[in-house]
Amino acid sequence: MFALALAPSLALAADPPLVEWARQRVHSGLVKPLAEREDSTFSRAKPPPRERRVRVLATTATRDQNGGSFVPFAVDVRYGDKWREDILGCVYQGSGHLFVKRGDAYRPAEFLLGKNVEPVPGVCRGAPARS
Predict the structure, then answer these.
(1) What is the spatial distance between Cα 9 and Cα 74, in angstroms, rounded to a whole number?
(2) What is the mean pLDDT of residues 62-84?
């Protein structure tokens, strides 16, 4: 019984520090502000998702075309019983800057919070392999 009580904490401890850092950064910088923004009860907008989860899509950072290190992530939403992918993006190691994908471009995450920001070229895309 004691071993079963420790199982969830052991699973979390197995995540590399980079993965846990990225998950926490996306949660505090994107998921939490989105939830706060959607907390209005007097809106005609579609209801907010029942739950959101952050998935970090790599265990190591990737270098972009400008030399910055980023980690890709996805935010899934659940309205009923099924999860679906809602947001794709990346978080930059060091600065913690968050970018989200819209179409073929990546914009600062503030875009999803209502700010009018332009796409940023070269972010969240791995540098071409050298031959």
Answers:
(1) 23
(2) 93
